[in-house]
Amino acid sequence: MEGNVPDPNYAENSTMDGIVTAPMIQHVSLFSPASYNLPHFKYKHLPQSEVRNAWGSWIRWFETIMAVSNITDGSSRKMQLLAMGGIELQSAFYGIPGCAEEDPSRDPYLSMKEKLTHYFSPKHHDSFERFLFWSMAPSDSEPIEKFALRVQQRAEKCSFGKSENESRHIAVVDKIIQYASDDLRQKLLEKEQLSLDEAIKTINAYQSVKYQSSKMNAKANGGSANRPFEQIDSNVNRLYEGASKKFGTNPRCLRCGYNRHREGEHCPAINKVCLRCKNVGHFQTVCKSKNFASAVSIKTK
């Protein structure tokens, strides 16, 4: 007979009735989270645009350590996060308004993670994130598979809607923002969660205020808006062309009294002698001289 090979996991105890085998107690050794040497999360030296990605990489590493260390309790994970995160992460968390408030129905760790993720995320509008997504294009030497990876990473930051109707509304809002004036676009982007209804209300309010403001400006400038600006020329007295175009007036020439001459035309009074003051360059009807002279004809010698 072949001898039985003893199982190392069992111990043999001799009794009067025979041999009784009993399982040995096995001690499962789990690594301490500190043994993984996870560096503290430091972000203050990073550009603002890189903080969210750095936080995402760090928290994934942390959660992997929690999983292999078999730490599943929410309160324990929260304290581990504060301890392993370091002073900068602790300062960030305790500086968040309402950080100490906890919902008893929620996991403490998940609640804390959500607050920190929001804190470390750049404050970009959803429409702006989608604008960056649709503006993406592969570089000349970029392989299509690498471009596809970049597109997927950018898409994770975008909200495209949870239903067909919501996606349609989002597309309309994005198109409105794309072609809105600078002032209106700023007002639309001020709202973090901009629905189509909110966008329409904002547009209507903006247009209404703009219309009322233009009416008030026209009323306030009524006394001077139609008054042409004058510009003295060495050869002829002409009204400033820019003012007449702006205000739509039909001014008269200060030399002859006729309506403003067309471009390139000469004033008929430019070489004429005034019958009132005897000066050359204007007609008697527009003469402003204080020295009155009898209206006589100038005879040529």
Question: Mind explaining what this structure looks like?
Answer:
With about 300 residues, the chain is mostly helical. Among the domains are: about 90 residues, no CATH class; about 90 residues. Helix content is about 45%, strand content about 5%. It is built from eleven helices and four strands; from the N terminus they run ββααααααααααββα. A hairpin with a 4-residue loop joins β1 and β2. The longest helix has 25 residues. It is elongated. It starts with 9 loop residues before the first strand and ends in a 54-residue tail after the last helix.
Relevant terms:
301 residues, mainly alpha, two-stranded antiparallel sheet, 11 helices, 45% helix, disordered C terminus
Could you provide a short overview of the structure?
This protein is mostly helical and 301 residues long.
Order of helices and strands, N to C? Answer: EEHHHHHHHHHHEEH
How far apart the termini lie comes to: 162 Å
Within the largest sheet, what's the order of strands?
Answer: 1-2
Shape assignment = elongated
Class computed from helices, strands and strand pairing = mainly alpha
- Strand percentage lies at 5-15%
Estimate the helix proportion, in percent: 40-55%
- Rg estimate, integer Å: 42 Å
Profile the largest sheet: 2 strands, antiparallel
Number of strands: 4
Our count of helices gives 11
Uncertain residue segments: 8-16, 24-29, 223-250, 292-301
Q: Compute the average pLDDT.
A: 74
